[in-house]
Amino acid sequence: xxxxxxxxxxxxxxxxxxxxxxxxxxxxxxxxxxxxxxxxxxxxxxxxxxxxxxxxxxxxxxxxxxxxxxxxxxxxxxxxxxxxxxxxxxxxxxxxxxxxxxxxxxxxxxxxxxxxxx
Length: 118
Hints:
By secondary structure, the protein is α+β, with helices and mostly antiparallel strands. About 55% of the residues lie in helices and about 15% in strands. It has four helices and four strands. A two-stranded antiparallel ribbon has the order 1-2. A two-stranded parallel sheet has the order 3-4. Helix 3 (about 50-70) packs across helix 4 (about 80-105). It is globular and about 40 Å long. The two termini are about 20 Å apart.
């Protein structure tokens, strides 16, 4: 199924028509983030519980320092690290780990697209 996405990069505006599978990859190439990535990143770092504070901080450090060096090649929307953050926030530590591991196992270019938490 084809979809139209509109996004900005600096002062430039783009309109992208692509299938859902490749949309996140193409948008990340031009802007480094999708709209879902930005929405999740804009959530405040939780103060409590302490484990969640530490997990979110570690994920955000990965996103800032390591992910750009690896090439920012996530094929999913939201990115795997942001999906992981939402899994921990919504389901807690144990299920958050399981959802994160399952997502990383699916991480191949042919499996990309929008992947929301269930």
